[in-house]
């Protein structure tokens, strides 16, 4: 069994829940070195009315003490997410000392920031400690793309909210 696939599928389930809650369809899962599930998270921006309630941040918050302990004992956690992390989430990942990041879909058109921030070479020391795997499974990537297409028609999508104001 491919554990990366297993946990990316779990992140997709969280993304689907986010879409059902009428918010951006992103899910994230954190596991330890033995692939034990530490925490799940999903985008909760609209349900919580909190612009910082992104999936990766939600998972890091849900990991609580486990994240802090992992930093102290240098345990290597992995975060699986359904979309490339934004700049805020990238910062959260680096501060949480997560050592492996795996995502299903690059986010070149949105706020995908992980690769952009890494390319600045500003945090080389931190980024050099993190293993990155992007878009490893075409079929799962397609499922995330389908969620993004559904999000485009959701009334809470910022484009649709703006259009409603202009009517």
Structural class: alpha/beta
As a percent range, the share of strand residues is 5-15%
Give a short account of the largest sheet. 5 strands, mixed
Question: What distance lies between the first and last C-alpha atoms, to the nearest angstrom?
Answer: 51 Å
Order of helices and strands: HEEHHHEHEHHEHH
**Tally of alpha and pi helices:** 9
- Give me the side-by-side strand order of the main sheet: 2-1-3-4-5
Radius of gyration: 16 Å
Structure description:
With 167 residues, this protein is of the alpha/beta class. Helices cover 49% and strands 14% of the residues. It has helices at residues 3-20, 45-48, 55-63, 65-73, 87-95, 114-119, 124-127, 138-152, 158-165; strands at 27-31, 37-42, 78-81, 100-103, 131-134. Strands 2-1-3-4-5 form a five-stranded mixed sheet. A hairpin with a 5-residue loop joins strand 1 (27-31) and strand 2 (37-42). Helix 1 runs parallel beside helix 8 (138-152) and helix 3 packs parallel to helix 5. The longest helix is centred in the N-terminal third of the chain and has 18 residues, at 3-20. The protein starts with a helix and ends with a helix. The mean pLDDT is 94.
């Amino acid at each position: 069994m491919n554990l990366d696939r297993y946990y990316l599928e779990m992140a997709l389930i969280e993304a689907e829940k986010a879409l059902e809650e009428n918010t951006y369809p992103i899910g994230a899962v954190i596991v330890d070195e033995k692939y034990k599930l530490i925490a799940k998270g999903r985008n909760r921006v609209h349900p919580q009315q909190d612009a910082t309630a992104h999936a990766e941040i939600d998972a890091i918050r849900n990991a609580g003490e486990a994240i802090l302990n992992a930093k102290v004992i240098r345990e290597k956690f992995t975060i699986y997410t359904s979309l490339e992390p934004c700049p805020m989430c990238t910062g959260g990942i680096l501060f949480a000392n997560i050592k492996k990041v795996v995502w299903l879909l690059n986010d070149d058109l949105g706020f995908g920031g992980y690769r952009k921030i890494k390319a600045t070479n500003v945090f080389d020391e931190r980024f050099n400690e993190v293993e990155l795997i992007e878009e490893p499974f075409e079929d799962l990537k397609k499922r995330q793309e389908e969620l993004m297409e559904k999000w485009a028609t959701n009334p809470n999508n910022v484009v649709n909210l703006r259009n409603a104001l202009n009517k």
